[in-house]
Design a protein that fits this description.
Layout lengths: L3 E6 L6 H12 L8 E6 L4 H11 L4 E4 L13 E6 L2 E6 L11 H9 L4 E3 L6 E6 L2 E6 L12 E7 L6 E7 L5 E4 L2
Helix pairs in contact: 1-2
């Protein structure tokens, strides 16, 4: 079995042009060209996804949660899914007191037998290992709050290897660039 990749992004906040840039980039990495086979959206812009997927022709298996700025949706605030040999807990993060530490997220991940946590809300990309759990925040596609600008992540699973995480950004004139986080 070859490796598989998961596209992870959050906080588009109506920035369809930025989301289109990301999905156009990712579309070229779908099978058979590459191994992005699934995507996780971590909230705040859930209404942007359908229009952008249709405009770009990006279709894959989606994992979705809503954020504190997503209204009138039936999408849950938290979800669990399995990808490769990992269990992912995903949420937007606004219900977990992120600015006071990760205690609530750790408890939620453990309660769901997850070993990877995907969250958004802060608009700042990060990757941490806390108490044996991997925490990944892709940053924000639409309203970044970090010096790296608009960002998203790609998680790669290879058989019998640890996950690898790459962060990507939207540079000048919509050019996608690799980021060092």
């Amino acid at each position: 079995m070859d490796g598989k990749k998961l596209l992870v992004f959050s906080d588009t906040h109506g920035s369809i042009s930025s989301l289109n840039t990301v999905l156009n980039w990712a579309k070229d990495r779908l099978p058979p060209n590459d191994t992005i086979c699934s995507a996780a959206f971590l909230g705040d812009g859930i209404s942007d996804l359908g229009r952008s997927a249709e405009a770009t022709g990006f279709y894959c298996d989606w994992n979705l949660v809503c954020g504190n700025n997503d209204y009138l949706t039936t999408v849950p605030e938290a979800a669990v899914f399995d990808f490769c040999d990992y269990r992912f807990f995903m949420c937007h993060g606004h219900r977990h007191s992120l600015y006071g530490g990760f205690h609530s997220l750790i408890a939620a991940a453990r309660n769901n037998q997850a070993n990877v946590v995907l969250y958004g809300h802060t608009h700042v990309p990060s990757y941490k290992n806390i108490d044996g759990l991997l925490f990944i925040n892709p940053g924000s596609v639409g309203r970044p709050r970090s010096r790296v600008g608009a960002s998203f992540a790609v998680i790669e699973c290879m058989p019998n290897e640890q996950l690898t995480v790459e962060f990507w950004g939207i540079g000048d004139k919509g050019k996608i660039k690799n980021l060092k986080i």
